[in-house]
Amino acid sequence: MRATLLYGERDIRSEQVPDPVLSGTGRDAVVRVTAACVCGSDLWPYRGVTHPDVPRRIGHEFVGVVEEVAAGVTRVRVGDTVIAPFYDCCGVCANCVRGVTTSCLELGWWGGEDHWGHATDGGQGEFVRVPHADGTLQVVPGTPDPELIPSLLTLSDVFLTGHHAAVSGGVGPGSTVAVVGDGAVGLSAVLAARRLGAERIVAMSRHADRQAVARSFGATDVVAERGDEGVAILKDMFDGIGPDAVLECVGTKESMDQALRSARPGGQVGFVGVPNGGPELPMRTMFSTNVGVRGGVAPVRSYVEEILPEVLDGSLAPGAVFDREFALSDAADAYRAMDERRTIKALLRP
Predict the structure, then answer these.
(1) What is the pLDDT of residues 269-309, one digit of tens each?
(2) Is CB count within 10 Å lower at the N or C end of the chain?
(3) Angstrom distance (rounded) from CA 290 to CA 334
(4) How far apart are the C-alpha atoms of 266 and 260, rounded to whole Å?
(5) d(CA 220, CA 50)
(6) How far apart are the C-alpha atoms of 265 and 291, rounded to whole Å?
(7) In the chain, what are the domains?
């Protein structure tokens, strides 16, 4: 089978690797991938910001069809169309039951190891072994319209990560919101804020193509300025004090500083940007303003059942974040396009 491997800084290769097989735990399944994608967080190791052991499989967002299940799997069946979140979870431990599935006591990450020490496949491949099939995979009822595949794929990570930012930021009916970051997660956060009833949503973006998507997703305003100027503009837009919630979707020190200084006193920052680049919390500023900070790695498996019906009935279409499609064999081109900001989010088809 073909899969994507990271060999080093800006060195992505599409190669033949062994087909996955069931491990013998009795709880896994093999999924034939029908669509995968490149995530903004994949760019951190690609750019050399983080230094994983290489070569290694990469990718963590995919949808597909179940090809094989182990004897102990009861909820997922061969032939099911499934959405795989960006991590593997058991679904039954104390943390999973409480909705924090990213802190599963048997947690595993794609392209790493599962709970039993077996290597896990990266999501950018033709097939993936899923260690906890019943806990991890969300079954999509029936045979979904092929046109819905991009939106279904966003439920593996990107849209539900934006949703987590909005939920963590306390967004609700009548809220005023600013979104820091105009990548696919930031754009998803705009859509999520609209879905939750925000009255006014500001997308902070310098790029015309991303501004257009943000407006189509429900942004009422766009601010291109950053730093002190951006903070001042946001304050002026909202009674001189700033919006109720600021959603931080980048993960750098500068983006977190922007978010914290933009929220109104007593407001909330919802953060989902993977911390790369030294984000720090200024405790004195937070103490003085009563601005709260909540968020982290998004427990998307805990959200997907709520959101899935809206994607299936067409009332929610987060798949618009995908603006280019590549063959899996051309994954290196997809990474370059995202790295150079020539595409918002790249979809991969085996």
Answers:
(1) 999 998 876 667 888 888 899 999 999 999 999 999 999 99
(2) N
(3) 42
(4) 11
(5) 36
(6) 6
(7) 2-157+299-349 (3.90.180.10), 159-295 (3.40.50.720)
